[in-house]
UniProtKB/TrEMBL annotation:
InterPro entries: MBL_Glyoxalase_II, Metallo-B-lactamas, RibonucZ/Hydroxyglut_hydro
Cofactor dependence: Zn(2+)
SUPFAM superfamilies, A to Z: Metallo-hydrolase/oxidoreductase
Span of the signal peptide: none
UniProtKB keywords: Hydrolase, Metal-binding, Zinc
Gene3D superfamilies in the record: Ribonuclease Z/Hydroxyacylglutathione hydrolase-like (3.60.15.10)
Protein name listed in UniProt: MBL fold metallo-hydrolase
Length: 235
């Protein structure tokens, strides 16, 4: 599987481009702030054609470039519980933060809702761009946070101990988890998502998170304090 990551200009958000191979249709996951030019360059370089944009959740740092990447023809896919966030994700930021972003990038912050939006549901399987992508609803960071699963690995990853990939958004990071103190966050829901959605993932799972480096479930199960504490509390 062809996989490339682009780190956004703000908040270090990971945007991923996935395809069966070069020269094929592809999926763009979480196009954040300032990535659209680099996404288009990558698509041209590898002769890729976007078939869909997948959003792990609706926070601004994961969706800001969704409309230019979609280009009016490609649909943005987001869980139904986070659909409302695409109306105006800028409204969730304080004026001070919006002003700081505008000063950093030298342009006025603007938002236009995507023309085509598909609402995702839990345990749905998407057949897009020649890839089969499972949807696992994992609220806690936001109401509609999801984990996307694929039964394949990036071509450059040795397959000795790994056999599948998840894109965990802001549910699970290397050594940490997503915060739950923002609007729509829910610590109890996050604990349930970690227990019921993350812990059951096999150790052979490669984890591509919304921020920071890639990791594996084998590593997180033994080193991530949030999973260790959760496992210790289970009956």
């Amino acid at each position: 599987m062809f996989v490339r990551s682009i780190v956004a200009d703000a908040f270090g958000t990971n945007c991923y481009v996935l395809a069966p191979a070069e020269g094929e249709e592809c999926l763009v996951v979480d196009p954040g702030i300032g990535v659209e030019g680099r996404v288009q360059e990558l698509l041209r370089e590898h002769r890729l054609r976007p078939a869909a944009v997948l959003l792990t959740h609706g926070h601004l740092d994961h969706v800001y470039a969704v409309t230019p990447v979609c280009g009016g023809t490609v649909a943005a896919h987001i869980h139904a519980d986070d659909r409302y966030r695409l109306t105006d994700p800028l409204s969730g930021l304080g004026p001070g933060l919006v002003e700081a972003l505008e000063q950093q990038f030298g342009t006025r912050a603007r938002w236009q809702e995507p023309d085509r939006v598909v609402e995702l549901v839990d345990e749905q399987v998407l057949e897009l761009a020649g890839l089969s992508v499972s949807v696992s609803h994992a609220p806690g960071h936001t109401e509609g946070s999801v984990i996307f699963g694929l039964g394949d690995l990036p071509a450059a990853i040795p397959a000795d101990d790994l056999d599948r990939t998840v894109l965990s958004g802001d549910v699970l990071f290397a050594g940490s988890i997503g915060r739950t103190d923002l609007p729509g966050g829910d610590p109890a829901a996050m604990q349930r998502s970690l227990r019921d959605r993350v812990l059951p993932l096999p150790d052979s799972t490669l984890v591509l998170p919304g921020h920071g480096p890639a990791t594996t479930m084998a590593r997180e199960r033994t080193t991530n304090p949030f999973l260790q504490n959760l496992a210790a509390d289970r009956p």
